[in-house]
Specification:
Blueprint (H helix, E strand, L loop, with lengths): L1 H13 L10 E3 L3 E7 L10 E9 L4 E8 L6 E3 L6 E6 L5 E5 L2 E7 L1 E10 L6 E12 L3 E12 L7 H10 L2 E3 L8 E10 L2 E9 L6 E6 L11 E3 L6 E7 L12 E9 L2 E9 L1
Parallel strand pairs: 12-19
Antiparallel strand pairs: 1-2, 2-3, 3-9, 4-8, 4-10, 5-10, 6-9, 7-8, 10-11, 13-14, 14-17, 15-18, 16-17, 18-19
């Protein structure tokens, strides 16, 4: 898996770069990206919410923060922004995307990534400058670079409803074993001979199709995408993924893992450890 990822990355780096336009819009042959701020006065100590809107060409996709079996995640660079202390990128629930014999994780169509911008000085204006490096894929992947900037004034925006909907799609923090409409009820390791894997049982609304994603503690981990398997207790759905994808020399005992479960418009994220 790791070798395939490096092959994909090499192909990306060898491909021609995409073009971008000045202002709050950056466009390529396959993606239009723009920055839009939400409506409302910006109060002291409050984050400023900004929408990064991606309009992806039909048949193409881009990747989530963890791309799955192949691909590269987007990289955000806010260097050159004025009066900006920090920017937190929020990731709406992604979808599994088949690529050849692999499963990647990402987005298709139109997607909005909320950005929470923290100011250095609440009394001064904010100018957000973004350089976005990412990949867009159909049968082949090509690199894309977008450069956009936006002055944040707190004025009206036509994207308020869309930004609110995108924020609602960001997985909610949850606790392992809690009672909820969508919940990760248990996580356990199986260390049988030749079959080291993790078993995850998920509670979901009746008839809901659940997808599950697993992330290691650092970007150099490459955990497989969990697959639905039989054997779940009544009322639950069971998933499994192999214990593989650790960086060289690292063991699995006690590592923190983020599990993201998605069922329709509901999404949760649970942090746990593989004890």
């Amino acid at each position: 898996m790791q070798l395939f990822k490096w092959w994909i990355l090499a192909c990306l780096l060898a491909s021609p770069a995409a073009r971008s336009l000045p202002g709050n819009v950056a466009t390529t042959d396959n993606v239009k990206a723009r920055l839009v701020s939400e409506t409302g006065a910006i109060g002291p100590g409050q984050s400023i919410w900004v929408a990064l809107e991606l309009n992806i060409r039909d048949g193409w996709h881009t990747y989530w923060r963890y791309p799955g079996d192949a691909g590269v995640p987007p990289r955000f660079d806010f260097t050159g922004s004025q009066n900006v202390k920090a920017v937190d990128v929020l990731w709406p629930a992604p979808q599994p995307i088949p690529e050849h014999d692999l499963v990647t994780i990402g987005y298709t169509g139109d997607v909005i990534l909320p950005l929470a911008v923290v100011r250095e000085n609440g009394a001064k204006p904010v100018k957000l400058r973004l350089r976005l490096d990412y990949a867009v894929c159909e049968t082949l992947c090509v690199p894309a670079e977008g450069k956009a900037e936006l002055v944040l004034t707190g004025g009206s925006s036509s994207q308020d409803a869309a930004l609110a909907a995108a924020e609602a799609r960001v997985p909610k923090k949850a606790v392992l074993g809690e009672s909820a409409t969508l919940a990760i009820k248990s996580v356990r390791r199986e260390d049988g001979a030749g079959r080291r894997r993790v078993i995850v049982d998920v509670a979901a609304p009746t008839g809901a199709r659940v997808t599950l994603f697993a992330e290691g503690p650092t970007p150099d981990w490459a955990l497989p995408v969990p697959k639905a398997v039989d054997g779940a207790p009544a009322g639950l759905q069971r998933f499994a993924f192999a214990l593989e994808g650790a960086p060289p020399g690292v063991t699995y005992e006690g590592i923190p893992v983020a599990l993201t479960a998605v069922a329709g418009n509901i999404a949760i994220e649970v942090m746990t450890r593989l004890d």
